[in-house]
Amino acid sequence: MKSRIDDLAILGGPPAFSEPLHTGRPNIGNRQRLDERFQRILDSARLTNGGPFVQEFETLIRTRLGVKHCVATCNATLALEILAKATGLAGEVLLPSFTFVASAHALNWVGLSPVFVDIDADSYTIDPRLIERRIRPNTSAILGVDLWGRPCDREALEGIAARHGLTLLFDASQAMGSFYHDQPIGGRGVAEVLSFHATKVLNSFEGGAIVTNDDRLAESACRMRNFGFTDYELVSSPGTNAKMSEVAAAMGITSLESLDDFIVANRDRYDLYRQELQDLPAVKVSVYDARDKYNYQYVVLELDEATAGMRRDDLHGVLHAENVLARRYFYPGCHRMEPYRATPPAGGWDLPVTERIASRVLCLPTGPSLSHVDVRQICQIIRLAVTNGHAVRSRGVGQPPENAKPLWGAEIRST
Ligand code: T4K
Predict the structure, then answer these.
(1) Alpha-carbon distance 149 to 172, whole Å?
(2) CATH code at 302?
(3) pTM for the full predicted model
(4) For 281-302, how does the pLDDT look when each residue is reduced to its tens digit (9 = 90+)?
């Protein structure tokens, strides 16, 4: 364990970890069962186009979430695009800027205009109190985002959508396994979208899904993900290719079998992080709404730079030097990314909470592949850095953001 600031790797000490600790380590599940499924796919030569594993995966997801339909796709970005097309959205869609850029890009890609609404400082999700002032005659929908697996305020959004005749959709890409109050995410609004990307709590290498209780919407989405085909040779609408492959579904099924174990492991690491960091006034590990349940896939630390004497980016640099690849998700907010940065509304984007939170938060490595010893060591590094923030900073540790990403080029530790 490091006890003096000179031990910190950024100040010349040896890195605490010889191999990178990633934020977003894939959860694999039972490899033997995965292998068996792969063999069955190869033996059957049924590789894609709605094969038996995709059908099984869809059934398992809809049963688990208690929804009528699951339309599996090759990723969540295309699921969002299809959903926007299938619900016939036009004009402007309200969503938070503080999200992964795919939430906004999917809308932009199909010709819609994302309009960003600020977030609530405690939940980090869209602030319902700020939505109505952004509604204009050409607003067609609200896209709530369950950031870091935390369900956004569905009841409040439903009320607003109903009052203004807006379509309500949810980007639940990060929220598989989470519950809004006592209900699994997936069944609210017109539809919800899930991601099964490798870094998600449930992974299918790449993958996504639209889940909905709307029969017609499910039928449209199925058609659109398969070039608009309704029959063997009959094409009855525009469409794209967003089909999930059989290997992806096999991974998804395998990962789903262990999902509850992954969540228990995530919860365990989250509790340990909180326990280890609770007495540090400069640091807040995100707290959750007791009415909900979470997948705990992201452990989010918020740094108060005035108390710490160092900026979030300094701490980010300190951790990366130790091979702890914490991420500044979702810095700097979509509104500061192109094309949204270049096309602000009159008067500019008004997103003070997003700006503040985006400059303060760090997501830490977590998950089954991370040991308790690892977590304690990471916490000790954080403690050492933030309790000596001024001293560390006076030695010029600030690391420009551009330097952070290349570390991902390093070898990945196997689970
Ligand atoms: N909406 C929301 C709210 C989302 O969060 C996302 C995706 C989407 C929509 C769109 O879903 P998809 O179309 O992707 O299904 C990652 C993911 O690529 C992205 O899926 C995810 N959100 C986003 C939050 O994170 P990056 O650029 O941060 O990933 P990357 O490659 O830097 O990996 C993160 C860390 O995970 C690295 O340190 C290494 C580790 N890793 C990653 C991969 C891919 C591994 O250890 N193994 C791996 O295979 O975007």
Answers:
(1) 7
(2) 3.90.1150.10
(3) 0.95
(4) 999 999 988 999 999 999 999 9
Handedness of CA 213, 218, 221, 225 (dihedral sign): positive
Q: Map residue 142 onto helix, strand or coil.
A: strand
Amino acid at 384: L
Residue 156 lies in a domain: yes
Ligand 1 atom nearest 147 alpha carbon: 3
Q: Are residues 397 and 309 in the same domain?
A: yes
Pocket of ligand 1 (CB under 6 A): 22-26, 75-77, 99-100, 102-103, 145, 171, 173-174, 195, 197-199, 208, 325, 329, 408, 412
The CATH number that applies at residue 39 is 3.40.640.10
Backbone torsion region of residue 124, taken as left when φ is above 0, otherwise alpha when ψ lies between -120 and 50, otherwise beta: left
- Closest-CA residue to 156 (of 168, 140, 138, 172): 168
The residue nearest atom 45 of ligand 1, judged by CA position, is 25
Element (DSSP H or E) covering residue 140: strand 139-145
Which ligand 1 atom lies nearest to the CA of residue 412?
46
Which of ligand 1's atoms lies nearest the C-alpha of 407?
Answer: 38
Contacts of 62 by beta carbon, 8 Å cutoff, 6+ apart:
68, 69, 70, 211
Band the pLDDT of 399: cuts 50, 70, 90.
Answer: low
Domain count, the chain: 2
> Taking a C-beta distance cutoff of 8 angstroms, is the pair 314, 399 a contact?
yes
Helix (H, G, I), strand (E, B) or coil at 184: strand
